[in-house]
Structures are given as C-alpha cells and as structure tokens.
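SAMPLE LOG
Freezer: B-3
Tube label: C17
Construct: single chain, 429 aa
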Amino acid sequence: MKIKRLFLALAMAAAALSLAAQASETRVPPETEGSPETAVFAPFVSRLEGEVKNNLIRLSWMDSPNVRGPVYIYRSTRPFEGSGPWSNPVEVPYGVQSYVDEIETGGNPGTTLYYFAAASDERGRSYDIPIVFTNSISIQVQAGAAAAFVPAAAETAARESTGISRGISSLNAAAQKDRVIITFTEASESPASAAKSVVLYRSVQPIRQTPDLLSAVIVQTKINSPFTDYPVPGIPYYYAAVIEEDLVRGTVEITPGRNATLAPVEVSAGIDSPGRDIRAMPLPQISVQGAVPALSAYEEAPSPRQLSPEAAKALGNLPARSGAALKNPRAFSRDLAVPPAGGEEYALHSIVNGPFAAKNWEAARNELVRFLALPRSPEVNARARFYLGQSCYFLYQPREGLFEFLSIQDRYPIEVMEWIQASLDMLKN
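STRUCTURE (predicted):
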C-alpha cells in the first residue's frame, strides 16, 4: 500500500514539472529560442545618436540582439509618437549600424529633424515603437528645407529595372609641381544617365567607407575631368569622388580603388630642393683694390676694434633671440564670459579659463581631446578645435595643430589663417 502511494506521488510530481516547463516555454517569444541567457525580449535598436558635419548627419546605433532583420530609418520634422504608420523609410542591413543623411543648408536657422530607427525580424515584421533617447532622437541643424528622403531600396530597384549602372568607375590623383591633377571616369551604360554633378572630397585620412566623408573636406562640386586642386604643400592627402544625387538619396558607396584613392598624394613644399644650385656659374668676386689703384694703401676689410665698455654693456642687455617668436594665444570673447551652469558651453568655458588661460598646454590639450571625444554641436566643436590647434602649436606639434586649423577653416577662415601660416613656418624651421 505504501509503495503504491509512493508511485502515485512521483507521478503527480512529474506531471506538475511538465506543466511548469510548458508554461515557461509559452512565455518565451519565438525570437529568443536558443538564447536562454536572454531574459527580456527587446526588438528595438538602442543608443541611437546623431552627429552633424557640414550638411551631413551621421546616425549610429546598436542593433537588437533579438531580431536580425533590416533596420528602417524614418525622418520627420515632427516628433514620432504612437506606433505609426510612417512612410518613405530607408532600409539599412542588419549589422551596418550607421547611416549618413544629407540635408540642404541655408534659410532659417534652428531647424529640428527627428529620426526614428525601427528594428525588424527576418520575416519582415517591423517593430514601429519609438522610444525617446533609445531609438528616436531629435537633431537641430542649420537648414531651411530638408532634402528629399528617398529609400535606398527603392533607388536600387529603380536602377536594376532600368539596367543603368551609374557612379565613378575609376579615380586617379597625381602630383605635378604645386598642384594635384584629378582624373576620373563615370560608369554609365546610357548617355542619358550621366551624372549631373560630381563632388570631390579631400582628407588627411584614408577614405575607406561612407562615414569617412564626415571628416573630409569638400573641395568643389560639379567638377569635370581633369580637375586641378591646389592643396597645402607638405601634407599627404586622400581623395574621393561621389555623385551628388547619391548623396541626396543616401545611397553613396565608397569603394577604395574605384571612387577613392588608395595611396596619398603630396605636393612638395618647394619646386627646387634646398641643396640644388639654381645658378649656372658663381658670380665673379670684385676686388675694390684692383679696381681702384689709389686705394692700395687701405685694407680690403677693416680691422676689428674692441667695443667701448658702454657699448658692450648695452649689447649685453639685449635679449637673446632663439628662432622666431611664438604667437600669443587667442580666445573667443563668448568663451571668456561665464555661460549658464551646465552644458557643453560651460565645459568649454572651464577649459579655456583653466589650463588654456594658465598656458598649461599639455593639460589643455588632454582636456580638449577628452571634450571632443563626445559629439558636440558644430559651433562648439569648431571653437574647441581652434583651442586644440593652438595647444598643439605651443607644444611644438605643428603638424597636429595644422590639421585642427584646416578642419575649421570653412567656419573661421580669418581667425585660423594666421595660425595655419604660423604652423607651416614652424614645420619649415
């Protein structure tokens, strides 16, 4: 009797464990099967951030570990609320985790754009639930009207349907004396599909992918081959050429060796080398004694005489000069005034009035590098790089300082011109 009761208890316990296991399986979404360590099902991208560079906005995020379909990027002039629906998304493959959008600048300043990145699964189901500061952000830009936001997938389908292959098929940059000659060819199977505008980029860093265009400088738009560029001598540069229409649509693809140069091009600092004798024959030495016989009683050069004590003392009081004098540091007036507490303006004010004002250049450089490690507004970013370039200059690092000044030349052309010249003079000496 006791044995029967024991078997009955064991059977009831096994049935309870089976029901509990089935209940736990029904609570786990199908997307998380095979991932026992994932306790929460989160089909959303995270850490969506935006960085503004000239007329480009670079979005970056972290993909969801639970769903591995494409990410759909939406843009609007109004905040994203509710669950949509929204139209005209850009499809980004899973794993890319970045996208570059172009806007048209000009007009009324202070335009705010809203971006939303929606994750999807392999079956095409999109999770259109915006979460502020997670997969939905707002970015304030200097823009009057935003450019057309055409889905990359639609553009690719249109090209495949028409059979048109468009873009830059080859790009070459060659240095000739004080200039760089840029030549390129456009891949086009139909004359009507020729690009209307080609944009040339120049950078001190290799241009290997589309986000690298954010750190490059636009040399000129609507160029033709061949094109002549006059870069700063003594600095190696990389070039890239892209179709302006692809920039507007967000479908730019950088392929090194095709539309981006693989090797840097450097213009010599001087056409003639320092050791070259540009004179065919040295000039003859003229003897005054032979030309004027009456001066034969005088020596060719006057004999040295000892200075008087007063002259020697005056000469000793003169400061010794060791090379060219350094420039005086400069700061913007708005960074000297006390801004409201908190924010990036206040942080930059603390650096300028702290180690920078005390001429502790190494500490100022280190703090500015840490300050620029985070995304900043274009205005604050440019001023911080202006101070970083000066810190490198006073640390006798003219090459590093020159790069900083060149990066903000478009925003502060007058202020950085003298610092660019001073950095070049220090490099030459």
